[in-house]
Amino acid sequence: MSILQIARLGHPVLRQVARPVGPLDRAGLDRLVADMMDTLAESGGVGLAAPQVHESLRVVMFRVPPWRGGGVEVPLTILADPVIEPLDGPQVSEYESCLSIPGLTGLVPRWSRIRYGGWGMDGAWVECEAEGFHARVVQHECDHLDGVVYSMRMDDLVHFGFSDQIRRMGSVDAE
Ligand code: NI
Q1: φ, ψ for residue 85, nearest 5 deg
Q2: Which of 55, 94, 141, 175 is flagged as catalytic?
Q3: How far is the centre of ligand 1, averaged over its atoms, from the C-alpha of 100 (Å)?
Q4: What percent of the chain has pLDDT over 70?
Q5: 141 an active-site residue?
Q6: How much is the pLDDT for 68?
Q7: Which of 5-14, 27-36, 38-47 has the lowest mean pLDDT?
Q8: CA dihedral sign, ordered 76, 47, 138, 170
């Protein structure tokens, strides 16, 4: 296992539509997933998509720490070929950050409630409903599979800036 280099904004791999995993090369995927887990743990982030480690494959992982989920913790979840369906409810804007855009944060509208599914690493289909931060992190990670980063979702770039600066202004709980 090893810590992988994270592609930063401007690298073309972040703009590509990633290819489906499909019938798995299990050994290859296990290695990638193990390395992504190490990389995510080292980064201190809450989510990572394979394109962020230069693998244009539809694989995401995410977790929700209890302090982000209003006391509800979601353990590390790893999905191949995930799909998202918005459920009833408004879009809500919160600040997001991304390991591929280090040091910056921006206010991003997302669906407040979603249903998502994907193939777990045991080969079983996982399906779940999510809201709040949980729904947000899933949408953020799955966007990476379609070549979309959060800044492309922003309504108004006036709410884009350095995390430490914006945090100092007291307006957000930027990560
Ligand atoms: Ni990201």
Answers
A1: -125, 120
A2: 141
A3: 6
A4: 94
A5: yes
A6: 85
A7: 27-36
A8: positive
